[in-house]
Design a protein that fits this description.
The complex is a heterodimer of chains A (115) and B (112). By secondary structure, chain A is an all-beta fold. Chain A contains no helices and eleven strands. Chain B has no helices and eleven strands. The chains are: A mainly beta (115), B mainly beta (112). The interface between A and B is medium-sized, with 25 and 27 residues.
């Protein structure tokens, strides 16, 4: 049962354009969402997060949008740079259940930013 | 401020041997999580620990796997009698409370 889904395994975007990565979830208990970036042979690097009480969070070139009714979130990167080429993971947790806040990950989207 | 440290980075074991993976959390972080990534898959939660306590081990295989986070020293993920299916990247993460988790570089376990 894949509770967090990233339906696009790969995405190619030209340098300077916007990259939009999508993520859907099924568990309505999730209330905290994160995006991580991962290079080969390295650990995931935290990029940006959003709580379910918000619908948008912005940090520099990265913006995350949350649509709770659709159980959908997206990561926008603008402008895209060659160094952004990596695998991006969406993750979710249930912070307010009183239980452990383990992360549930999607399967990742490989972003390639071309010159 | 050093990040999450994991060692070894690469570990090769023969079937039936034991594997010990170590994780030192970031300074000030009292929560440690272990995840496993199989080839071409996302990360899967294994276990969540605080000092001297296992909080959630719902993702741990029932046999051969154990984890600890002692009062002093790093967290240890121990895999006894390894099999080829245990070959994966094992990542440790830490957080100050139930918030953002920061990951280490991972240990890549290869079972021959």
């Amino acid at each position: 049962d894949q509770q967090v889904k990233q339906n696009s395994p790969s995405l190619s975007v030209q340098e300077g354009r916007i990259s939009i990565l999508n993520c859907d979830y099924t568990n309505s208990m999730f209330d905290y969402f994160l995006w991580y970036k991962k290079y080969p042979a390295e650990g995931p690097t935290f990029l940006i997060s959003i709580s379910s009480i918000k619908d948008k969070n912005e940090d520099g070139r990265f913006t995350v949008f949350l649509n709770k009714s659709a159980k959908h979130l997206s990561l926008h990167i603008v402008p895209s740079q060659p160094g952004d080429s990596a695998v991006y993971f969406c993750a979710a947790s249930a912070q307010n259940t009183g239980t452990a806040s383990k992360l549930t990950f999607g399967t990742g989207t490989r972003l390639q930013v071309t010159l | 401020n050093a990040g999450v440290m994991q060692n070894p980075r690469h570990l090769v074991r023969r079937r039936g041997q034991e594997a010990r993976l170590r994780c030192s959390p970031m300074k000030g972080h009292s929560h440690v999580y272990w995840y496993r990534q199989l080839p071409e898959e996302g990360l899967k939660f294994m276990v969540y620990l605080q000092k001297e306590n296992i909080i959630d081990e719902s993702g741990m295989p029932k046999e051969r796997f154990s984890a600890e986070f002692p009062k002093e020293g790093p967290s240890i993920l121990r895999i006894q009698q390894v099999v080829r299916g245990d070959s994966a990247a094992y990542f440790c993460a830490s957080s100050p409370r139930n918030y953002t988790q920061y990951f280490g570089p991972g240990t890549r376990l290869t079972v021959l």
